[in-house]
Amino acid sequence: MASSSSSKIENGNVFEDLSGISGTSSENPYNTLIEACNDDPSSIQTRYGRHRETRNAAQKTKFLASDFSGMSIDPILYKLVNPQTHPGFADSRNCLVFWARPPAPLKRLIADLQRKLTAMAPNLWLMPIERLHMTALEITFSLTAPEIDDIVAQMVSKIPQITDYPYQHRARLIKPMLSYDTAAIALSFEPAAGESPPKDRSPTADIYTYHHLRRDLYGLSKETGVDVASRYVVPSSHLTIARFVTQTDVAKAEDDHTPDPAKVQRLIAYIEEINADLREQYWPHNGQDIKDGGQWIVGEGKGLDCRKGTLWYGGGETVRLGKGF
Fold this sequence. Notes:
Elements: E1 8-10, E2 13-15, H1 31-36, H2 41-64, H3 75-80, E3 94-100, H4 104-120, E4 125-126, E5 134-143, H5 145-155, H6 159-164, E6 172-180, E7 184-191, H7 210-222, E8 237-243, E9 251-253, E10 256-259, H8 261-282, E11 295-297, E12 305-309, E13 317-321
Antiparallel strand pairs: 1-2, 3-5, 3-12, 4-8, 6-7, 6-11, 7-8, 9-10, 12-13
Helix pairs in contact: 4-8
């Protein structure tokens, strides 16, 4: 049984559907939410919103708990950013994905958010702007390079159609907000449902949501016979913009990595302050135009980027870059 409520774990954090959706017998797991919402974009948006708000609330509780033990440091990224203590270390995890690349206005917003975050947590690892991405569909992860090449060969006839797909299927994302856990900070969105569309876009165009796009990418990929082993079936649309690679920013002292509750509380309050500003400045209000960076039509500027290799932190190699608009 395919289910969008299944969960997987990375760096101590669970990819769990917190939107309130239960399983379905559909062969395409992305149909679960669409069916539960009766194919209604407003309901789909609500589920995406519920997922990220519930997750942030749970993470806040975790951060502020009396037994909070500190950040979940990614051991591989830690070794990569500390070559002086781990000389010659290389990430051996090869993956295959379809990424959506953010347009220029969104990249400018993210650069500004990264500057704000490092004002409070200067030791954050920041995703380089040129490497920013949102995983529209993950085919597989943590394999060898030859195994990935075999999958690419199996999919090669379909990759142009998949990477060009957003050109004719334009899903819009709105309401940027910082989502966080003990490992990373991301900028997340909700699928649009007719709010303040651009002048050249009809409100009814939002009937086709980002979740529909994910469903279709999954279906097209499955037509090649590959096993889509994605970790990201949950109702989330996000770009990771920063990761924690040290305890220093919330520790009691440089030589004492025990979390300082006051520092942790200040960090969470600061993130919430940024989110309040995003809501005020970049969310739709009373039909007014959305500020640049506050919405994203997937495929704007660039089509999907079929990417392979050691791409966990934005690297890897492009197999094919799709047609943008």
